[in-house]
């Protein structure tokens, strides 16, 4: 059976027009003869959206009852039975009511797709799992309903419904998004201009990354190695030398010339060819890269030019910036054009910038004693022997005399040593034997014959070859030690880069996997745990068996590419240990999150203990005084006075009884610990009893309650105590003729209860004192109501995962805002589109 196609309309914020655009597309498909039905659409009371939905066949919704409340959800079975060609499903991230077939609406969509039904849906950027924490930092509103990134990225088509931030605010102010009573709060909270601008940028960047990822997959599937200049990506090659800062700044300027340009700095650690810079210089250049907005990468390769070009092609680079050689003209003439020429030759369609710098053209230096003796160096040693041997023979033969034999021998000995330094033991032995034969033939009597007349001459030739062998052995040993030192240095730099990525806030596991792939030049690396993939980097090739590196007892690294050697496996063992530590840290973090409710309970208990003495002392003192006065034999009380004292005692004791009973009920003390019992709570059912407790009616308080308000996760008893105290203050300080007001609204996944008064207000510099114990103004008699103080109210609300804040009331006064999270079964169900 053909699988359905998924098309997603993505928006930066509620109200940009995602649902409207989805309905327009549905009507267009219907007008073209397509079979289109509305599976579920949330109009949020918007007349234009509702009008557009008319005329398109709609599948009736299914009513699911939860805690006695009927919730309208998409009828998945009815849509499957109807079997349309295309289904319009609004709010992809919605959480279904308990009792539904699936927990999430995106799971319902997956079922429709599996049945061959095309689906058009909508989602906001804040509901993408990987961006959840970023959106919360921007808006301050946690998003509890998310769609996994891999689910959303699997969509066949993702389109951005874009609207400028100021245009969205204008729509909101005109009443096209929320009702009039919610506009002011929305404009001053979630829909701030800065918030909308940041969310819009986040949506654009996420979609651009998704397009870039799709392009990489396409290029990998079709084996396209040439560069496609869809976006400027500038790779700067760093050697760790003093020219690094110049190259980075030039690369940053090149990247800045085009919108969306990327800067990538790469340092290639190799066993040959590239003169290593100081570690402190590389660290400084890594820091400068990050300040310039780029990313730092470190790879290990056998050949600098090939590794550099391979990295540039892997990231689809368009520009490659390298520095001009630091070697002088003589060194260039002797050893060839160097890395720059090779990079230019192999770069293909990548533009190469060779940048001049202050360290260019340094003085000539002889080849270093250290260094890996590669095949190139051995060939160079043989070539030096073949070219210089005849040249020296021609020069010395013309100056031959009986006294020159010592100079002749030392000259050939020097040639042997130089060849040993350049090419190692085999070219040196070849040169020693050739030099010995040449000396015997051209300079030792009888001339032009190869014969040894005296045993001493034979011993001299043996010593001559032995000297060459000893020098070559020392050179080879130094080269092996240098190779090991360079390898260790490259490994330490790689581990420092990995650790730096984690410390700078990158995801630890993803950073370790990414750097492992880059360092060993692998096609792809996956971190697996059982049958699941924790994270991946790169695109695994078709076919071929991966190499497995075990990470403790719970995970394994799956390496796609060339099999690592012994030294690479040792380094992979170190990386595996770091990954195991990161997994353990992740487990500890998950465990710590489970302790969060205990911290909330402690927070409420602390607030209770700090305020209980203040709340109990006054009625207890009044009752004690009244009873003591009645029992006094020194005063004769009249019946009226006695009744008044009894009434005072009764009132105080009744208040104390009710307060203690309420505290015991709401605190649910078990073994000395105050427990917060969170449950799905209807805010209206808490506000009305709060009014009854304060004996307030329509003449005292104005109510603006949202009829579509979702339930919240709260403790009803604690919430009522908080509302009673805040509302009592509002009524007390409201001037005559201006009632206090209680309004409710929903923003994102948060419900706000706003208790508004039009009194004198509180200066901003004194707002923090509102929540300090014993700061209740006017609380000096026995008739104003006890409450638990704003300190206790704040502790109760924060213990339930919400917040209590103070704001100015437009026109004067104070507004107390109680924010609570929407219950999981209703979050995002009211979001605007």
Classification by helices and strands: alpha/beta
General form: elongated
Fraction of helical residues: 40-55%
> Residue-averaged pLDDT, rounded?
77
Largest sheet: 5 strands, parallel
Widest sheet: strand order?
2-5-6-1-7
The fraction of residues assigned to DSSP E strands is 15-25%
The tally of beta strands, per DSSP, is 23
Q: Give the count of helical stretches.
A: 25
What are the segments in which pLDDT stays under 50 over at least 5 consecutive residues?
271-275, 362-372, 668-674, 773-788, 827-833
Question: Radius of gyration, Cα only, in angstroms?
Answer: 40 Å
Q: Report how far apart the termini are.
A: 33 Å
Describe this structure in words.
The chain has 833 residues and is of the alpha/beta class. The protein is built from 25 helices and 23 strands. A five-stranded parallel sheet has the order 2-5-6-1-7, sandwiched between helices. Strands 10-9-8-11-12 form a five-stranded parallel sheet, sandwiched between helices. Helix 10 links the parallel strand 8 and strand 9 (262-269). Helix 18 packs antiparallel against helix 19, helix 19 (508-520) runs antiparallel to helix 20 (566-594) and helix 21 runs antiparallel to helix 25 (789-799). It is an enzyme of class 2 (transferase). It comes from Nocardiopsis codii. The chain crosses the membrane at residues 379-397, 409-436, 456-475.
């Amino acid at each position: 059976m053909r699988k359905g196609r998924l098309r997603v309309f993505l928006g930066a914020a509620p109200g940009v027009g995602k649902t409207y655009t989805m309905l327009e597309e549905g009507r267009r498909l219907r007008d073209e003869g397509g079979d289109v039905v509305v599976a579920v659409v949330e109009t949020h009371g918007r007349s234009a959206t509702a009008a557009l939905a008319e005329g398109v066949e709609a599948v009736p919704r299914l009513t699911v009852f939860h805690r006695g409340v009927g919730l309208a959800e998409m009828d998945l079975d009815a849509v499957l039975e109807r079997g349309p060609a295309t289904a319009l499903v609004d709010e992809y991230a919605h959480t279904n009511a308990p009792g539904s077939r699936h927990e999430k609406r995106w799971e319902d969509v997956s079922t429709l797709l599996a049945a061959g039904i095309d689906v058009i849906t909508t989602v906001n950027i804040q509901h993408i799992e990987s961006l959840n924490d970023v959106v919360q930092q921007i808006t301050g509103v946690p998003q509890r309903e998310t769609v996994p990134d891999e689910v959303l990225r699997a969509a066949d088509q993702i389109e951005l419904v874009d609207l400028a931030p100021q245009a969205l605010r204008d729509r909101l102010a005109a009443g096209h998004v929320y009702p009039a009573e919610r506009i002011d709060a929305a404009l001053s909270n979630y829909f701030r201009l800065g918030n909308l601008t940041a969310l819009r940028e986040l949506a654009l960047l996420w979609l651009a990354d998704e397009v870039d990822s799709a392009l990489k997959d396409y290029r990998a599937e079709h084996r396209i190695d040439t560069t496609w200049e869809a976006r400027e990506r500038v790779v700067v090659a760093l050697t760790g030398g003093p020219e690094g800062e110049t190259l980075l700044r030039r690369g940053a300027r090149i990247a800045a010339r085009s919108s969306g340009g990327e800067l990538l700095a790469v340092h290639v650690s190799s066993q040959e060819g590239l003169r290593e810079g100081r570690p402190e210089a590389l660290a400084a250049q890594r820091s400068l890269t990050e300040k310039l907005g780029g990313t730092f990468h470190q790879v290990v390769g056998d050949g600098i030019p090939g590794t550099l070009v391979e990295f540039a092609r892997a990231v689809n680079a368009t520009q490659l910036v390298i520095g001009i050689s630091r070697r002088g003209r003589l060194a260039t003439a002797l050893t060839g054009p160097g890395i720059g020429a090779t990079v230019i030759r192999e770069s293909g369609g990548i533009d190469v910038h060779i940048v001049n710098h202050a360290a260019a053209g340094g003085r000539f230096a002889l080849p270093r004693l250290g260094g890996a003796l590669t095949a190139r160096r051995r060939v160079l040693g043989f070539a030096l022997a073949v070219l210089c041997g005849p040249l020296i023979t021609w020069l010395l033969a013309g100056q031959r005399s009986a006294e020159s034999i010592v100079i002749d021998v030392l000259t050939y000995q020097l040639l042997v040593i130089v060849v040993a330094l350049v090419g190692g033991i085999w070219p040196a032995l070849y040169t020693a034997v050739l030099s010995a034969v040449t000396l015997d033939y051209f300079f030792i009597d009888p001339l032009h014959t190869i014969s040894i007349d005296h045993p001493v001459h034979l011993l001299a030739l043996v010593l001559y070859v032995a000297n060459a062998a000893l020098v070559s052995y020392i050179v080879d040993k130094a080269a092996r030690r240098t190779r090991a030192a360079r390898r260790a240095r490259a490994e330490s730099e790689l581990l420092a880069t990995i650790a730096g990525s984690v410390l700078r806030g990158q995801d630890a596991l993803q950073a370790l996997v990414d750097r492992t792939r880059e360092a060993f030049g692998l096609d792809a690396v996956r971190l697996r745990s059982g049958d699941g993939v924790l994270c991946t980097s790169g695109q695994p090739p078709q076919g071929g068996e991966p190499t497995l590196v075990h990470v403790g007892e719970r995970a394994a690294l799956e390496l796609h590419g060339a099999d690592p050697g012994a030294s690479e496996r040792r380094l992979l063992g170190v990386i595996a240990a770091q990954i195991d530590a990161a997994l353990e840290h992740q487990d500890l973090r998950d465990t710590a999150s489970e302790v969060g409710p205990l911290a909330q309970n402690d927070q409420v208990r602390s607030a209770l203990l700090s305020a209980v003495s203040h709340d109990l002392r006054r009625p207890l003192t009044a009752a004690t005084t009244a009873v003591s006065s009645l029992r006094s034999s020194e005063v004769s009380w009249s019946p009226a006075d006695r009744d008044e004292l009894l009434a005072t005692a009764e009132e105080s004791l009744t208040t104390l009884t009710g307060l203690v009973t309420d505290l015991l009920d709401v605190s649910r003390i078990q073994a000395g610990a105050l427990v917060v019992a969170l449950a799905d709570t209807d805010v209206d059912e808490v506000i009305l009893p709060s009014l009854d407790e304060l004996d307030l009616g329509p003449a005292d308080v104005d109510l603006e309650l949202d009829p579509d308000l979702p339930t919240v996760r709260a403790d009803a008893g604690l919430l009522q105590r908080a509302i009673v105290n805040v509302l009592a203050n509002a009524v007390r300080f409201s001037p005559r003729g201006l009632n206090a007001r209680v309004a409710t609204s929903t923003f994102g996944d948060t419900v706000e209860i706003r208790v508004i008064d039009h009194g004198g207000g509180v200066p901003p510099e004194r707002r923090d004192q509102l929540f300090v114990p014993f700061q209740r103004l006017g609380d000096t008699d026995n008739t104003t109501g006890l409450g638990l103080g704003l300190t206790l109210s704040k502790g109760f609300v924060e213990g339930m995962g919400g917040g209590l804040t103070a704001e100015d009331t437009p026109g004067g006064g104070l507004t107390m805002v109680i924010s609570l999270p929407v219950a999981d079964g209703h979050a995002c169900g009211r979001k605007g589109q």
